[in-house]
Structure formats: C-alpha cells, structure tokens
C-alpha cells in the first residue's frame, strides 16, 4: 500500500498537468477536444515535467558544487 502523502502528491501533479493543459486550450480558444488527443497532450506535458525536474535537480546540484568549490565548506 502506497504512502498517503505520496498518493496525494501524485494526484496533485496530475491535477496540475490537467489544469495547465486546460489553460493552454482555453488560451487557444478550444472549447473541447476529443479524449484521445487530450490524453496525448497530457503525456507530452508529463514528459516535459519529468525533463524539467531532472534539469532542475542537475542545476541545483551544480550550484551546490560551484558554491563549495568557490567558498569551501562552511
């Protein structure tokens, strides 16, 4: 059984992706699209999210490394 906090976070991520996609479609003046296209777009957003998370983690790690190399351990 999955931790309730993990489940809640996964649901929040899904909802955030769905809201983003709905906002994009509204901006493009699409009132509705078919479910298959919506799911394909959700998959694209999810893939972009995962790539952004990886890049953010790499950036944060590099900033820590640069700080330690520049300033040393405090």
Q: How many helices does DSSP assign?
A: 2
| Percent of residues in helices | over 70%
Roughly what fraction of the amino acids lie in strands?
under 5%
> How many angstroms separate the termini?
41 Å
Largest sheet: none
Radius of gyration: 18 Å
Q: How would you state the average pLDDT, rounded? A: 92
How many individual β-strands?
0
Helix/strand/pairing category: mainly alpha
Gross geometry: elongated
- Name the helix and strand elements from N-terminus to C-terminus, one letter apiece: HH
Low-confidence stretches: none
As for the number of domains, it is 1
What would you say this structure looks like, in words?
The chain is an all-alpha fold. The protein has one domain (4-71). It has 2 helices and no strands. The protein has helices at residues 4-27, 35-71. Helix 1 crosses helix 2 (35-71).
In a nutshell, what does this entry contain?
The chain has 74 residues and is mainly alpha-helical. The chain has one domain.
């Amino acid at each position: 059984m999955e931790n309730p906090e993990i489940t809640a976070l996964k649901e929040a991520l899904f909802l955030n992706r769905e809201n983003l996609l709905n906002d994009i479609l509204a901006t493009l003046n699409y009132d509705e699209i078919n479910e298959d296209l919506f799911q394909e777009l959700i998959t694209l957003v999810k893939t972009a999210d995962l790539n952004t998370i990886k890049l953010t983690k790499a950036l944060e790690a590099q900033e820590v490394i640069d700080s330690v190399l520049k300033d040393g351990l405090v």
